[in-house]
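Known limitations

Files may contain more than one protein. Parsers should not assume a single record per file. Below, a two-record file is shown to illustrate correct handling: read the sequence, read the token line, then continue until end of file.
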Amino acid sequence: MADSRDDLAESLQNLFTSVSSMVKSELQGTNNHLDLLEKMNLRIASEYDDMGDVAAGLRVFAEQMKSKSGGLDEFVGQMDAIEKQVSEFEAVISVLDRYVSVLESKIRAEYRHPHHQRRSNDSVVTD
């Protein structure tokens, strides 16, 4: 009976040792997963810090562009005023061009058909 108790005790000891090894392996695996997650979190946190720096740089750049575009608005307004003046000048030039054309036509007509000039004694003199 002592042999069977020794066999039972040895079997139980092997069982507890195996269960203990299995639990230790499971805990080590869980610990490895937690270490991996910690490293991944640190890496992602570093990348988010880098993205934050880029975002801050982009914000500064956008503010600079906004201030520069505000200066350009003044020039755009000046260019619009110049364009309006040019359009008005073109309209005046068009009117003057038509007036000159009419005068040229009258002068050509005068040279083709000269009018008779009268002297003080009402005699007709042709040019």
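...continuing to the second record:
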Amino acid sequence: MEKVLALLLIALAVVYAVPGPRGIIINLENGELCVNSAQCKSKCCRHDTLLSLARCSPKASENSECSAKTLYGVYKKCPCERGLTCEGDKTIVGSITNTNFGICHDAGRSRE
């Protein structure tokens, strides 16, 4: 009985020593390697060139370059932050060739 109790206490100590829920496959931080945007906390997995490794990146801010959508789950430019819209090419050809870039604009502001 003493061995079981000691084993239980050791198991509890190990459980409490483990850090919070850090992603290994999902819930990845910016800068970590990814294969799909669904893995990232920011929901943006991007690469600079076709041969470069994709990494989680922050979403595009106002007046930054953006991609409207992707068919592959990996962006060349990240989509806009919440409340902004990506004004640019939204064609299926742009999505296939990953050239559907635009600029993030505030959806709430009126255009003048």
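Parsers that stop after the first record will miss the second one. For reference, the second record is described as follows. The chain has two helices and five strands.
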